[in-house]
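The freezer alarm interrupted the setup, so I double-checked each line after restarting. Inputs confirmed:
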Amino acid sequence: MREFIPPAARFVDLPVDFPLRRGGTLHGARIAYETVGRLDEDRDNAILILTGLSPDAHAASHPADTAPGWWEEMVGPGKPVDTDRWYVICVNSLGSCKGSTGPASVDPASGDPYGPDFPELSMEDIADAAAHTVRALGVERLACVIGTSMGGMSALSLLARHPGLARSHMNICGAARSLPFSIAVRSLQREAIRFDPQWNRGRYDAERYPQRGMLTARKLGMMTYRSPQEWDSRFGRTRITPERRRDTDPFGPAFEVEGYLECHAHRFSRRFDPNSYLYLSRCMDQFDLGDSCGGTVEDALGRMRLERALVIGVETDLLFPLRQQREIADGLAAGGLDVEFLALDSHQGHDAFLTDTDRFGAPMAKFLAAL
Amino acid sequence: MREFIPPAARFVDLPVDFPLRRGGTLHGARIAYETVGRLDEDRDNAILILTGLSPDAHAASHPADTAPGWWEEMVGPGKPVDTDRWYVICVNSLGSCKGSTGPASVDPASGDPYGPDFPELSMEDIADAAAHTVRALGVERLACVIGTSMGGMSALSLLARHPGLARSHMNICGAARSLPFSIAVRSLQREAIRFDPQWNRGRYDAERYPQRGMLTARKLGMMTYRSPQEWDSRFGRTRITPERRRDTDPFGPAFEVEGYLECHAHRFSRRFDPNSYLYLSRCMDQFDLGDSCGGTVEDALGRMRLERALVIGVETDLLFPLRQQREIADGLAAGGLDVEFLALDSHQGHDAFLTDTDRFGAPMAKFLAAL
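Predicted 3D structure, all chains:
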């Protein structure tokens, strides 16, 4: 169990006792964050970014860490989220392993990592911890909350639980609840980890590590982050050249697409804590904005206290399909909000918001410029 | 390693030495088949059905085996494939474990099952074995070859390699080659089996059996056979009731969709030979009708000697997406054939041809009636 903390991460302490919604209390937990840009005197130019399952708080380069961030094309001076104007706060989710307290962190009660003893995590806990972080930075009213992928879930939860904390919202490839296909994908990913004997019910270390399970989980993830159409043009039926075939098993990787998955999965498998993956994955399944507000998704969306919202989805998204962004946009509009809904014709699937910056950048910049 | 032979299966011997396309020769191999209906005196009313990866030759009930077949709704007296008129031959694919020779069969050279020593299988071998079976039954000219799913691949291969053997063709949710997304799905399914320690490089038995790998492979299959939209309406976010939760692991199945996958996978996992699954799966990846004819897919389709064809696909098919059936239809039409192409608006994904008999039955019946 290991944490992977970006070099310039800073930290906000959560209240000494931080009770979780499904039971259990964290003691002395913290949230990792980074900021880009400057908070102005009125403290009204802050934007919060909530991330997908795996990214850390390093969304973009800045003087303290000049390495490119995970959303480098989108956040920075003169970029769609223009840090010459906006003070951007990016928060690492509670339960992650990138600096915020999670299963890989040390449990002060035992002096050992929590591992499988970490309490059950909910999207509402992630949202509350992010709201606490924002307020601890002296911001009482955000100009905008941007949530991407899983961050689109935690953002909706935050908006519902902390009315008035934000003026506007951008929901990018997000969802107001998990649907059966994505639950099934994540269920299989968790199985790959859980049934890896090296997982050992959550008690592993660097030597005895569920590498095999993480590889399979990540490959399955990649398959749902991209789109079949993109892969047709990118890989077609090209085969791995014999000299590059590492695996002599006749049933092993023979096509470029298999080599690509192998390569990406290897890169990821040692950089994310397997237990953290399990907790965040299950937390996504459990999320239903309606449940969390004691009503339906429509009720919860219809009650949002916001001025404006931009909701973007992609036609080829398998994991967060377009009908889920339409549901968000319709629900917010039913509450009387000024909502713009964009269904982008990108071939890059769920990950289009990371890669297809041309299509996403312009509407995001326009939305923020009009705030 | 076990074979699962339907009670009324009959057998045709392949030539004593049956060389496979990618090397290796089978000695004393056989093909399992069943027939429904009667071959008329002119021997011109025969229809061949080639199946997907897992079905056996028992497509429909008949006096020798009254149990419902895998395509019971579609084949029988008065049904879309009307056995009052047609003599229907359904063949179990070479390499399967349902009566035709495959990795679970006994290798006459050793007296033990072939297991991983079975030679590499190709779609062309499956096609040639089926063509041999048809001729052995005294049929020199089929009225129609119907191929579903993988059978849509072996049917195209048969038509290309045995010109004149069929007058017409029905391609149902098939493909002329495998594309990267489906290759990736099958690659992960194979990994689940190969990395199950019980697989033991293909040397397992009933006690030491790669059950875990088969479960995961089948679940992943189910996810690509159905459609997210169908699951939304079928399962929604319904949870498994606590008394029905068998698994106390907090990351284990909690939603109905997870229970459904678990149940189906358990039903399948002991009824299909894992090695056979690996061979057929890889054989599908390798299939490219163009390669097999020394040109492009378009060339091969354009040269088909047929009178008519019906090509059907489904909008929600993830595994054999609609653009693949359109490719087949366009290619056949370019060769001057009378081709009908139907893109059905079914929510049931790839398996719609098994479940959505209303939508499939009428056009199939109409096509056959006009022959």
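Quick read of the result. Residues 180-194 of chain B form the longest helix (15 residues).
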